[in-house]
Specification:
This protein has 375 residues and is α+β, with helices and mostly antiparallel strands.
Length: 375
């Protein structure tokens, strides 16, 4: 941890030094270019030393400026007083940086001239001219550092708020989904116990067998943690549920499946088909002794997966308005949570006979953790 902190501090120092060195080089090129445009001549050594020394002096002062910016941020109720503090600090630090730059650059230039051409004249800047000209630039530089720090600070604060909001939204999403799923378990349990309760009056051995099946079924449902599972897993779960219901209806319930093998690996919403099957049995087979066919189908349409459950029960009355009960409303809510507008649940009636429920979801052959950005 300590080594990581040291490395981070070293990287920050190197970044600051490189940034100000680049600024110094740009100003050097600018001064030389302007002089050439106006037909003048300047020593690139003189200009380069002065500019690079000056901006690297500010590289050394930058951590101090950032420290003041952290200590006296330009936000909050003390904004005016902090402005005053930074104004005073800028008028103190700017001439100090200029004086530092003057003596350091003068010393370097004298050394360079002594090495390269000892007898040549030395056009060194005067103390007053150098300090005054660089002093105003220093005040501006101070405020530029303050402004840049505040902009970066505001950006990071905004990103942190966005990250926290996304985390809270994800937590809320999972909480809502788990709440919806927990509502489904009692609904399914009560219907299954009702089936077993009826069998207890007719065939105790069959009822005992179904209790064992129900235990296995509930264990699978309660241990399942994923919001999405493969279509094959969902159909296996539905098969166990239908085993209970087929015993109840004395084999009157005939199940026909039309699912292409290449779709068994796609991911679907957990307990979605089971809910449609349960709805078909409750409103079709349980109220009409003539009903006996249940179809489960899956196919692709426009790059999306369509899951269909049809029954040949009485269906809705002609002209009546189809409404979702608790089970289908729950399925629709979970679809909205998982896929947003990319999913749908439709309920249609036949010509006075039967009913069809169709779920449409995006095609996906690998599991993805659902998140609020899909909404």
């Amino acid at each position: 941890m300590q080594q990581a902190t040291l490395d981070m501090g070293r990287t920050r120092w190197i970044s600051i030094l490189c940034a100000w060195t680049i600024v110094g080089l740009l100003f050097t090129v600018q001064e030389i270019a302007v002089a050439k445009v106006h037909g003048g001549h300047v020593s690139w050594v003189l200009v380069g030393v002065i500019e690079l020394v000056y901006w690297n002096v500010w590289a050394a002062y930058t951590p101090l400026v950032i420290g003041l910016a952290k200590r006296f941020p330009l936000t909050g109720p003390r904004f005016v007083s902090h402005i005053a503090i930074h104004t005073i600090a800028s008028f103190l630090m700017a001439p100090l940086a200029s004086v530092t730059e003057y003596f350091v650059s003068r010393g370097l230039l004298e050394l360079l001239f002594r090495i390269t051409d000892p007898g040549a004249p030395r056009p060194l800047p005067t103390f007053t001219g150098g300090v005054v000209s660089m002093g105003l630039t220093g005040v501006i530089t101070y405020w530029l550092v303050i402004g840049l720090y505040q902009a970066i600070h505001f950006y990071h604060a905004a990103m942190e708020r966005q990250t926290r909001a996304a985390q809270l939204e994800t937590q809320l999403f999972h909480a809502e989904f788990e709440n919806l799923k927990s509502q489904l378990h009692p609904h399914f349990l009560f219907n299954s116990l009702h089936t077993i309760g009826i069998l207890m009056q007719e065939n105790v051995d069959a009822a005992s067998h179904l209790l064992v099946c129900l235990g296995d079924l509930l264990r699978t449902a309660l241990e399942r943690r994923d919001n999405e599972i493969t279509l094959q897993s969902e159909l296996e779960f539905v098969g166990k549920y239908l085993e209970i219901e087929q015993t109840r209806f004395h084999d009157r319930l005939k199940v026909h499946m039309d699912v292409p093998p290449d779709l068994l690996g796609v991911y679907v919403q957990s307990l979605a088909i089971q809910s449609l099957v349960e709805n078909a049995i409750k409103h079709g087979f349980s109220v009409d002794s003539a009903a006996g066919r249940l179809e489960i189908a899956a196919h692709l349409h426009d790059g999306r997966v369509c899951l269909c459950v049809r029954d040949d029960g009485p269906g809705p009355a002609p002209g009546s308005r189809l409404r979702f009960g608790v089970g289908l409303t729950n399925v629709q809510s979970r679809l909205k949570q998982l896929y947003g507008d990319k999913s749908s649940l439709e309920l249609t009636g036949g010509d006075g006979r039967g009913c069809e429920a169709i779920i449409t979801i995006p095609l996906r052959s690998s599991h993805e953790d659902p998140s609020p950005h899909r909404r």
